[in-house]
Design brief:
There is one protein chain. With 119 residues, the protein is mainly beta. Helix content is 0%, strand content 55%. The protein is built from no helices and eleven strands. Strands 2, 4, 5, 6, 9, 10 and 11 form a seven-stranded mixed β-sheet that branches. β9 and β10 form a beta hairpin. It is globular, with a radius of gyration of 13 Å.
Length: 119
């Protein structure tokens, strides 16, 4: 079992930056792929970024490439999402999730953190 807690959300003006953190507890965090997802009002949850267990590879949705950077510190059981040049369309609840490398679905989810970007 893995417990995930997101933090770092808030209100920021367009063009600003935020860094989200996802702290994990429970089973060995470094074994898991971790992803960030977001859900805007009235929309389905969407993939934002993911990172492999070692942190050697990251993947991003086209909408955030070049603006968001995902990283992890396995010694601290924490994953980060650095978000730069934020746009109003980035407004959403952001969730981190974890899964085993051999599976497709994410098994473990955090409670989410709200990011609001004002124009």
């Amino acid at each position: 079992q893995v417990q995930l807690v997101e933090s770092g959300g808030g209100l920021v003006q367009a063009g600003g930056s935020l860094r989200l953190a996802c702290a994990a507890s429970g089973r060995t965090f470094s074994y898991y792929v971790v992803g960030w997802f977001r859900q805007a009002p009235g929309k389905e949850r969407a993939f934002v970024a993911s990172i492999t267990p070692s942190g050697g590879n990251t993947y991003y949705a086209d909408s955030v490439k070049g603006r968001f950077t995902m990283s992890r510190d396995n010694a601290k059981n924490t994953v980060y999402l650095q978000m730069n040049t934020l746009k109003p369309e980035d407004t959403a609840v952001y969730y981190c999730a974890a899964k085993d490398v051999t599976t497709y679905q994410y098994h473990y989810w955090g409670q989410g953190t709200q990011v609001t970007v004002s124009s």
